[in-house]
Write a structure and sequence with these properties.
This protein is an alpha/beta fold. Helices cover 29% and strands 21% of the residues. The protein contains 9 helices and 15 strands. It has a 5-stranded mixed beta sheet, with helices on one face. A 4-stranded parallel beta sheet has the order 6-10-9-7. Strands 8-11 form a two-stranded antiparallel sheet. A hairpin with a 6-residue loop joins strand 12 (226-227) and strand 13 (234-235). Helix 1 (21-34) packs antiparallel against helix 2 (56-67). The longest helix is centred in the C-terminal third of the chain and has 19 residues, at 279-297.
């Protein structure tokens, strides 16, 4: 878990049964605050999901607390590092689902697809009989994906079941390989496909983040960068911080090329959302950006424009 950078970032999720997640929230928040940890953790009856950041020892203390929660002893965590804090505050939220699909009968603890190690992933997706599906949202796929992967162009994960049912005939009888950022959406999407009668379903163990961490860049079948739900915005091979900025107006990643557009104004607009907002909204965003800049000059953190927790993929 140690690294050359001062801040350890831990992305985690675990499907397990919490009969009373509300009873876990306050003690978990207290453990995070005592350890000086920032980020977002989601609790639901189906388990825990989130990303947190802080000191090496602080992260270790919080993970120790989480592993003592019911069914969480086997919690797996993906670590990376950052030079600057990727979060400004700590939130522990109660949700109906730890990643929202809207299919109440799906239970990844009972049935999921076949896990594929990152070092075996290239062979699977290079097979002409394999259909590769990126389960992430359209703006995430735009920042980067695997060569040849299908983009369902969903705005949220809740739209994925509808997309699959609309394309079911094209996918039946095929070998399906699914991918997402850290693995959690694939747990649900492969469980969903199996509930729909699709048996030969595979997913990338540990998600894109594990692939970028373990597979050498010279062997990669990945193009672009991987969007992450924190202030790093995107990461590259070796989990190094990427080149995208975040549009504070629409929360989409902005590529280096798009940052050169006259439609990109830091904190106010980007080419993707320039026609989605009116002048009054942009005036509010400009004032928020001004307040953030003033806060930076004072050496303080302004917390008015953090990444939303919705659809977070640990």
């Amino acid at each position: 878990m140690a690294g050359g950078s001062p801040i350890t970032v831990a992305a985690l999720y675990h499907f397990t049964r919490f009969d009373h997640p509300e009873a876990l929230r306050v003690p978990l928040l207290a453990a995070c605050e005592e350890a000086g940890i920032k980020g977002t953790l989601l609790l639901a009856r189906e388990g825990i999901n989130g990303t947190i950041a802080g000191s090496h020892n602080g992260i270790g203390a919080v993970l120790g607390h989480i592993r003592k929660l019911p069914g969480c002893a086997g919690l797996e965590v993906k670590f990376s590092h950052a030079e600057a804090p990727p979060f400004h505050r700590m939130k522990v939220r109660l949700k109906a689902e730890i990643v929202t699909m809207g299919e109440p009968d799906i239970d990844p603890t009972l049935s999921v697809g076949h896990y594929v190690d990152p070092h075996d992933w290239n062979a699977l997706i290079s097979d002409p009989d394999t259909v590769v599906i990126d389960t992430r949202n359209d703006y995430e796929v735009a920042a980067g994906t695997f060569r040849g992967a299908l983009d369902p162009k969903t705005k949220s994960f809740r739209e994925f079941p509808q997309w699959f049912r609309a394309h079911r005939e094209e996918l039946e009888g095929k070998k399906i390989a699914m991918l997402c950022t850290g693995g959690i959406r694939c747990e649900k999407s492969t469980s969903f496909l199996r509930s729909e009668g699709i048996e030969e379903v595979y997913h990338l163990k540990g998600g894109i983040l594990k692939y970028l961490e373990e597979v050498p860049e010279e062997q990669t079948l990945w193009d672009g960068e991987c969007f992450v739900f924190d202030e790093r915005v995107t990461v590259k091979h070796g989990l190094e911080i990427g080149t995208h900025a975040m549009c504070r107006a629409c929360r989409r990643p902005v590529s280096p090329e798009a940052q050169q557009s006259p439609d990109y104004v830091e904190g106010v607009s980007c080419p993707a959302c320039i026609d989605e907002r009116d002048e009054a909204q942009r005036a509010r965003y400009a004032e928020r950006q001004r307040q953030e800049e003033l806060a930076r000059q004072r050496g303080a953190a302004h917390v008015g424009a953090e990444f939303p927790a919705a659809d977070r993929d640990a």
